[in-house]
Amino acid sequence: MGDVARLAGVSSQTVSRVSNGFPGVTEDTRRQVLDAMRELGYRPNSAARALRRGEFRTLGVITFSLSTLGNIRTLDAIATSAAREGYAVTLLPVAVPTQDEVNGAFSRLGELAVDAVIVIMEVHLLDAATVSLPPGVQVVVADSDAGDRYTVVDTDQAGGARDAVRHLLELGHGTVWHLAGPEDSFAAQRRANAWRATLDEAGREAPPLVRGDWSAESGYRAGLRVADQPGCTAVFVANDQMALGLLRALDERGRRVPEDVSVVGFDDIPEAASFLPPLTTVHQDFAEVGRLCVEGVLGKMREGGDEHGTTLVPTRLVRRRSTAPPPTPSARPSPPP
Questions:
Q1: How far is 173 from 177, CA to CA, in rounded Å?
Q2: Distance between CA atoms of 97 and 258, rounded to whole angstroms?
Q3: What is the pLDDT of residue 165?
């Protein structure tokens, strides 16, 4: 640092401020210091800085699945938000979501020197008391129903599902079928509960629930069963990937979308606007979920608080061409032979 200061013609304190990203340095001075660092091949010693400042500038992320789109996009948003704050991210996937595995993950993250932890929890664990997080660690949880014990950030799953079902009912459909996600998914449960509650509030009978596993293939298999229901004119699908499979199944059965059957998805993946037809869906703001997770865990680190509660990120319905009023009774297809 002294060599850099001499070459740049500044004080060691100024070099320290530049290397740590602190304000109060003019742009010309910052450029001089950075040029000197490059010329001398200087890199700040992160281990020494961590000892001096008492932090590693690294956040740990524990996730139980990297196969779902929501988890991947949430992770991407967390990494982006952390980088803006000058933090790196250490990812630790957990294959088997048990108490021992979670404790082991926290121990390994401790050995890897992280300042706090964000948990992306897709399955029923914290809310079912199957797993609890070790005490003494600053933690924020994404996608869980455990706001009475932890700081939780989640999409407004129920609100998004209500908007989807109400949209279809307002178009004139008598009821709405639901292609749900897997039973062990918190998000799938929230969306399915809201689907049923919205139909109940409207005085409509809920058709039998059909399940998939979030994949397009499972949506196709379930869609073949739904397509064979002549009275089905509207389907709310728990994610866009399954909706893609459903569209294929309806097409193979000769059911036109939206002339015969209207379809609404959930997520608003980038490809949803390119489906055939373009998919009406519920938009999730994954970037905001990730930002709030990072903001929350950094706030807990700096303030040392143990507050809990749930922050819900609003959704919005994106209307495209996969929904329309139901066909007239005379125009509905005959039951398959």
A1: 10
A2: 40
A3: 98
The closest of 115, 90, 75, 97 to 304, measured between CA atoms, is 115
Q: Which residues pair with 153 in a beta bridge?
A: 142, 311
Task: Give the integer Cα–Cα distance in Å for 314 and 235.
Answer: 22
Query: Which amino acid is it at 30?
Result: R
Give the Cα separation of 142 and 53 in Å (integer). 28
Helix (H, G, I), strand (E, B) or coil at 195: helix
Rounded Cα–Cα distance for residues 131 and 101 (Å): 9
Cβ(232)–Cβ(177) under 8 Å?
yes
| Ramachandran angles phi, psi of 235, nearest 5° | -135, 130
Q: Which residues pair with 282 in a beta bridge?
A: 266, 317
Q: Name the amino acid, one letter, at 150.
A: Y
Paired residues of 211 in beta bridges: 180
Task: Provide the edge-to-edge strand list for the sheet that holds 88-93.
Answer: 88-93, 58-63, 116-120, 139-142, 151-155, 309-313
> Model confidence over 238-285: pLDDT tens digits?
999 999 999 999 999 999 999 999 999 999 999 999 999 999 999 999
Give residue for tokens 């797993």: 131
Q: What is the DSSP string of 19-79?
A: HTT-S---HHHHHHHHHHHHHHT----HHHHHHHHT--SEEEEEES-SSSHHHHHHHHHHH
DSSP string, 197-266: HHHHHTT-PPPPPEE--SSHHHHHHHHHHHHT-TT--EEEESSHHHHHHHHHHHHHTT--TTTT-EEEEE
pTM for the model stands at: 0.78
Give the tens place of pLDDT for each residue, 82-138.
999 889 998 888 877 666 777 777 777 767 778 888 988 765 555 444 555 666 678
DSSP string, 256-280: -TTTT-EEEEEE--GGGGGSSSPPE
- Is a pLDDT exceeding 80 seen at residue 58? yes
